[in-house]
Write a structure and sequence with these properties.
single chain, 213 residues, alpha+beta, Alpha-Beta Plaits, 2 domains, 6 helices, 45% helix, elongated
Length: 213
């Protein structure tokens, strides 16, 4: 007696998508906590230093000239006269104040945040050694591992700091079986990357679009 053949359903992405959490717990090794890498930010720091140095130098020179019984520079006399006429509640004065506040907030955020979002910290097995992995390189490794799964025709991998998203197209095999194999293969590959905080894994599998006749 033969078993009935189950029809292969042409499922779309929404019907075959599933999300999986990482199988491994974060492990910082024996070398201490592996924090994010801080950006040096030489360009914005250098530009800000040049602006402050130039403005402070010009102002100090003018103050020293006034102390030496010389007339103040024209720009300072004109600025003082204009400031005496400007009102605080004028629209453009408020706009300049808001722009200066936004610029200050942006500089503070840049100063207190690590930056280098494209670099994922790896486990510190040795305290004196810090290593990082580029997100694009990690995505390429995970994509190669996903393409090794039977039934996968194409795959796209996006690697973030907290989540890895795999979107694959399967041209044969049951979608649930392909998705389960992708979960196992890519999950093992994430563990092998040696990241300090292994990201969560989300797998989406769909059939290739039907060809138009």
């Amino acid at each position: 007696m033969t078993e009935p053949v189950r029809p292969v359903l042409d499922l779309d992405q929404s019907a075959s998508a599933a999300a999986y959490e990482p199988r491994v717990a974060p492990d910082d090794g024996d070398g201490g906590k592996a924090g994010r890498f801080w950006s040096v930010r030489r360009v914005p720091a250098g530009l800000l230093a040049l602006v402050v140095l130039g403005g402070a130098g010009l102002l100090l020179y003018d103050i020293a000239a006034v102390r030496a019984n010389r007339p103040a520079m024209q720009w300072r006399r004109a600025l003082a006269a204009d400031l005496a006429k400007w009102r605080v509640d004028e629209l453009w004065v408020l706009a300049v104040a808001v722009a200066a506040m936004i610029l200050g907030v942006c500089l503070i955020v840049i100063a207190v945040t690590p930056g280098l979002r494209s670099l994922l910290p790896m486990r510190r097995d040795i305290a004196s050694v810090r290593a990082g992995l580029d997100r694009d390189a990690a995505a390429l490794v995970l994509r190669d591992r996903a393409m090794e799964v039977s039934g996968v025709q194409s795959a796209r991998v996006r690697t973030g700091r907290r989540k890895v998203s795999v979107r694959a197209v399967s041209h044969f095999r049951e979608l649930d079986d392909v998705r389960a194999d992708l979960d196992a293969a890519v999950g093992a590959a994430i563990k092998e990357l040696g990241l300090a905080r292994p990201p969560a894994l989300t797998v989406h599998v769909r059939r290739p679009p039907a060809k138009k006749r």
